[in-house]
Amino acid sequence: MKPIAVVAETTTETDIHTTFTTIVPIDLTKIFTGHWFLPAVQSTKNVTGAWDAEGQSRTVCLSDGSEAQEELVSYTLPKSFSYKISGFTGSLKYLAKSAEGQWWFETVSDGTTHVKWRYAFNPVSILTLPVLWVVAKVFWAGYMKKALTICKAYSEQDS
Questions:
Q1: Is 27 strand, coil or helix?
Q2: Model pLDDT, residue 131
Q3: Angle formed by the axes of helices 141-157 and 16-23, nearest 10°
Q4: How many angstroms separate the CA atoms of 31 and 99, rounded?
Q5: How far is the C-alpha of 29 from the C-alpha of 44, rounded, in Å?
Q6: Beta-bridge partners for 38
Q7: In contact, 47 and 71? CB cutoff 8 Å
Q8: What is the sign, positive or negative, of the torsion defined by CA atoms of 34, 124, 102, 68?
Q9: What's the N-to-C CA distance of the chain in angstroms?
Q10: What are the residues facing 124 on neighbouring strands?
């Protein structure tokens, strides 16, 4: 079954290295503050590294009491990184079995970086597909846009 993907993009007024090194290790509690019924990130635990090498992992703890496991799949400074999320314990476990996130960073001009973030949910079944589509395309897309705006501000603040 094909994943349901959502993409968010922005351009920062910072160079690619600053943008990448600010966004990749950012504290998730600062950018995922909740959106509609989607919970905020409250903390991370079981962190196995600085989020700068393939294979590192962490447990993301959400404000509704649920958790998800996150693993860094690829890390190419300062161009891209990707991760996989699985083990949802909240209501999302009924809709998605996992998700993948991918980020790309590209220099637009001196001191300006284009950032593209793709997030793809893998549906549990064909029956959950329509509900997951609405959650992803309507609510999660808004959450991503909000988070990316915050990431952009942190990146530009650090320059």
A1: coil
A2: 96
A3: 120
A4: 18
A5: 9
A6: 35
A7: no
A8: positive
A9: 42
A10: none
Distance (Å, whole) CA 82 – CA 78: 12
- For residue 39, what is the DSSP state? P
DSSP H helices, the chain, are 16-23, 28-31, 129-134, 141-157
Q: Which of 70, 64, 73 is nearest to 45 (CA)?
A: 70
Backbone conformation region of residue 46, classed left if phi is above 0, alpha if psi is from -120 to 50, else beta: left
Cα gap 51→46, rounded to integer Å: 12
Domains of the chain and any CATH numbers: 4-157 (3.30.530.20)
Handedness of CA 154, 58, 100, 127 (dihedral sign): negative
Taking the C-alpha atoms of residue 101 and residue 129, their distance in angstroms, rounded to an integer, is 19
d(CA 16, CA 109) in angstroms, rounded, equals: 10
pLDDT at 110: 82
| pLDDT number for residue 109 | 87
Task: Return the pLDDT at 49.
Answer: 92
Token reading at 56 = 């590192």
Q: 69: which residues sit within 8 A by CB, 6+ positions away? A: 57, 58, 59, 60, 85, 86, 87
All residue ranges of the chain with pLDDT < 70 are: 158-159
d(Cα 75, Cα 147) in Å, to the nearest integer? 20
